[in-house]
Amino acid sequence: MDEKMIAALMAQFEQSSAVELELTSGEDHLRLKKARHSQPAATKKPAAATPVPAAGTPVQAPLVGIAYLRPAPDQPVFKQVGEHVTAGEVVCVIESMKMMNEVTSPVSGVIQEVLIANESLVEYHQDLFLITEEADA
């Protein structure tokens, strides 16, 4: 199995209602299992469903993975509520398939709200931050 095939399988699996997938092709073996987080999932959904995004621009997850609000465990967070961010500036990283992917702000402004916890599982297009855009941006 090549990377493109695995990525396609992961995307289809994520969109499906299946909880577990196991696939063997020759010597290759792939096992995918969705995490079951009853409390964090319940906590995240109401925050995302709140009509607050109209008052700010959301920064969304470009992929599924584990979100880190710090560049390293012993480092401070990238950005926190009230701090200024410029368009293209890194606000967090998402680890997926052992690769770290930087998530950048689409606009310049002030961090209004952090909608996720450090080291939480995030879904594709999930809102991660809300940013109040600058009037001059």
Would you write up a description of this structure?
This protein has 137 residues and is an alpha+beta fold. It folds into two domains: 3-33, no CATH class; 52-133, RNA polymerase II/Efflux pump adaptor protein, barrel-sandwich hybrid domain (OB fold (Dihydrolipoamide Acetyltransferase, E2P), Beta Barrel), CATH 2.40.50.100. It is built from two helices and ten strands; from the N terminus they run αββαββββββββ. Strands 3-10-8-5 form a four-stranded antiparallel β-sheet, with no helix packed on it. The chain has a four-stranded antiparallel β-sheet with strand order 7-6-4-9, with no helix packed on it. A two-stranded antiparallel sheet has the order 1-2. It starts with a helix and ends with a strand. Residues 38-54 have low confidence and may be disordered.
Task: Describe the structure concisely.
The protein has 137 residues and is an alpha+beta fold. It contains 2 helices and 10 strands, in the order αββαββββββββ.
CATH architecture of the largest domain: Beta Barrel
Lateral arrangement of strands in the main beta sheet: 3-10-8-5
Number of domains: 2
Average pLDDT reading: 82
Enumerate the spans where pLDDT stays under 50 for 5 or more consecutive residues.
Answer: 38-54
State the helix count. Answer: 2
Fraction of residues in H or I helices: 10-25%
Strand fraction: 35-45%
Rg from C-alpha positions? 17 Å
Which structural class is indicated by helix and strand composition?
alpha+beta
CATH class designation of the largest domain:
Mainly Beta
In CATH terms, what is the fold-level topology of the largest domain? Answer: OB fold (Dihydrolipoamide Acetyltransferase, E2P)
The rounded distance between the terminal residues' Cα atoms is 45 Å
How many strand segments?
A: 10
Order of helices and strands: HEEHEEEEEEEE
CATH H-tier superfamily of the largest domain:
RNA polymerase II/Efflux pump adaptor protein, barrel-sandwich hybrid domain
